User: Which sequence fits this backbone?
């Protein structure tokens, strides 16, 4: 497996072995420039430090200033980043920096829309592992910038028993033993178990040590009943499956604690951004 980070990977695939041949032919090496990255639409900002690092990786002498912090809502037209230095270096880094920024701003913007759509209900919006390979840390940071919560980062940091696990091992006594083993570790692991039916919820609330029950694609009346079944325990409930901006408030009103939305990271629309560049004078 490669130990290269996403920025190195992105620059490598853009520059290849030959580098930016167009800029080398057209832009004099001593030309200095001033650039402003500007959103052309309403957005929530995310990924500014990543974009800034792209310019620095191409040319450490380029001066980068983050003008708007991640998590800030903008209407469009504001300067997010300013860059000053070698015009050739700035143009070389432009597309990779914008690619990261437009994607991460898109995730933060969509997350904020879901958070706002929940209304006054206490349910929190969460992401999933449905992320772009190699970009998970950046995408999850963008979810936080949008006001959401991160679910587990990977398979290694939380027990999440899904439907396929239960299909392979449907014995609830074996499940209860697995929960005990998870809680015996130091530190104890958080345990979440998926349920597709109220019958499963009734069985799961009796198992000591389960922290969260994941209600997968369950109709909202059943979700409400499931939450009531766990009311006397410390178990929390997460709703998942096909959540949209049109349905999320209705789901939140059932009393669930979390609503996970895969679309935050796998279907967010890129924000329209541009780099406005001028030759530096004097």
Assistant:
């Amino acid at each position: 497996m490669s130990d290269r980070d996403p920025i190195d990977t992105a620059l490598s695939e853009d520059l290849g072995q030959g580098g930016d041949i167009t800029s080398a032919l057209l832009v004099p090496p001593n030309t200095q420039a001033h650039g402003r990255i500007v959103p052309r639409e309403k957005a929530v900002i995310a990924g500014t430090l990543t974009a800034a690092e792209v310019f620095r990786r191409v040319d450490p002498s380029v001066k980068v200033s983050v003008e708007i912090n991640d998590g800030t809502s903008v209407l469009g037209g504001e300067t997010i980043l300013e860059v000053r230095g070698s015009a050739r270096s700035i143009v070389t880094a432009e597309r990779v920096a914008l690619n990261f920024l437009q994607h991460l701003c898109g995730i933060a913007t969509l997350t904020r829309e879901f958070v706002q759509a929940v209304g006054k209900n206490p349910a929190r919006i969460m992401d999933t592992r449905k992320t772009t390979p190699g970009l998970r840390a950046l995408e999850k940071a963008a979810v936080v910038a949008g006001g959401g919560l991160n679910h587990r980062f990977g398979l290694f940091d939380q027990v999440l028993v899904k439907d396929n696990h239960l299909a392979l091992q449907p014995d609830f006594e074996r499940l209860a033993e697995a929960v005990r083993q998870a809680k015996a570790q130091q530190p104890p692991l958080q345990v979440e178990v998926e349920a597709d039916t109220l019958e499963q919820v009734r069985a799961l609330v009796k198992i000591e040590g389960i922290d969260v029950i994941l209600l997968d694609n369950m109709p909202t009346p059943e979700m409400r009943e499931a939450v009531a079944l766990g009311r006397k325990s410390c178990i929390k409930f997460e709703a998942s499956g096909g959540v949209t901006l049109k349905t999320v408030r209705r789901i939140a009103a059932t009393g669930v604690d979390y609503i996970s939305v895969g679309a935050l990271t796998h279907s967010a629309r890129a924000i329209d951004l541009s780099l406005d560049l001028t030759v530096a004078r004097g």
About this structure: The chain has a mean pLDDT of 95. The longest strand covers residues 32-39.
